TrEMBL record:
Keyword Hydrolase in record: yes
Designated name of the protein: Agmatine deiminase
BP term (GO), one: putrescine biosynthetic process
Alphabetical UniProt keywords: Hydrolase
Source species: Solimonas fluminis
Length: 340
């Protein structure tokens, strides 16, 4: 049986968002975060359909999306409740088995039990029941978040030990067992593990999508740090060395694209927020890159443009999202073509 976990640059039918709740974790910043989501939705619907899991006010949200410039024909809204907005981690992970799409619905336990995720864990099945997609949804009793894995579409998976081996996720399985399961579910030939790499303030235990991303099968963009006085310096330099030692399946080194570390951003309590540039979303014809209103934004966009020929590289201000310790890729889940 042929199994493929498509790369993010494979053709897509839609992108899923889970809309913020006025009484949710962003309650104190709800207007700002909804504005962030409206800008993101407008950027997505320039290129493809948008599936939104939202509360009961479906028509009110539709009106706000239309006012924000989203084409009505590209909006697919469903009254599906959720705890929070992180669709990357509670949305479906799509594979193709013998060419047929399957939505894998893994367990989401709030990043190792840090937060209640009861409603989030039901979102994929609820969207299926509401008709958001006709693709078969297959539930898997294993804790795995989409932000924790990165596929090149050719049988290689990039991930981190800190996340996938965290004892709060799947304590019954060791590294060898987890790798064997990943290979079976995703049709992999190999799994590349990083021991280092983390952003201060991140509560996912080091999701790969915050630190290192495939741009194509031979190119990895990663979060760099060249300031020896920065708290990230030692760990990100160690990750950089790990990436330099990795080899493609053909034995060649990867082309590595370092992205500047965003100018430090802190919340009102003085806690550093996990701003990073690898948390971009690849879509049909575009790459949406988080920006933070800091001086490093322009340089990050400049470095990413050559990585995506034929795609428009677009910055989306995500300074509100990082107040709940995630960014652009974390709130989106792409749905590959033929799967929605």
């Amino acid at each position: 049986m042929s199994v493929i976990l498509p790369a993010e640059w494979a053709p897509q039918s839609a992108v899923q968002l889970t809309w913020p709740r006025p009484d949710g974790d962003f309650a104190e910043r709800f207007e700002a975060v909804e504005d962030n989501f409206l800008r993101l939705a407008a950027a997505i619907t320039r290129f493809q359909d948008l599936i939104v899991a939202c509360g009961e006010d479906v028509e009110g949200l539709r009106a706000r999306l239309l006012a924000a410039g989203c084409p009505g024909a590209r909006l697919r809204l469903y009254a599906v409740p959720a705890d929070d907005v992180w669709a990357r981690d509670h949305g479906p992970i799509t594979v193709f088995r013998n060419g047929k799409p399957i939505h894998l619905d893994f367990v989401f336990n709030g990043w190792g039990g840090k937060f209640d995720a009861t409603l989030d864990n039901e979102v994929t099945q609820q969207l299926a029941r509401k008709g958001a997609w006709n693709t078969l949804v297959e539930s898997i009793g294993f804790v795995l978040e989409g932000g924790g894995i990165e596929s090149d579409g050719q049988g290689t998976l990039l991930t981190t030990e800190r996340c996938l081996l965290a004892p709060t996720r799947n304590p019954a399985f060791d590294k060898a067992h987890i790798e064997a399961k990943l290979k079976a579910w995703f049709g992999l030939g190999r799994v590349l593990w990083l021991k280092h790499g983390d952003l201060l303030g991140d509560d996912t235990d080091g999701h790969i999508d915050t630190i290192a991303r495939f741009c194509d099968a031979s190119t990895i963009a990663y979060q760099a740090c060249d300031d020896a006085s920065d708290a990230h310096y030692e760990d990100l330099k160690a990750m950089e060395a790990e990436l330099q030692a990795l080899r493609q399946a053909n034995g060649e080194p990867y082309r590595l694209v370092p992205l500047p570390l965003p100018t430090a951003i802190f919340d009102e309590t003085g806690k550093r927020l996990p701003a990073g540039y690898p948390n971009f979303l690849i879509m049909n014809g575009a790459v949406l890159v988080p920006t933070y209103g800091v001086e490093t934004d322009a340089e990050a966009l400049r470095r990413l443009v050559p990585c995506f020929p034929g795609r428009e590289v677009i910055g989306v201000d995500c300074r509100t999202l990082i107040h709940q310790y995630g960014s652009l890729h974390c709130v989106t889940m792409q749905i590959p073509s033929a799967a929605a």
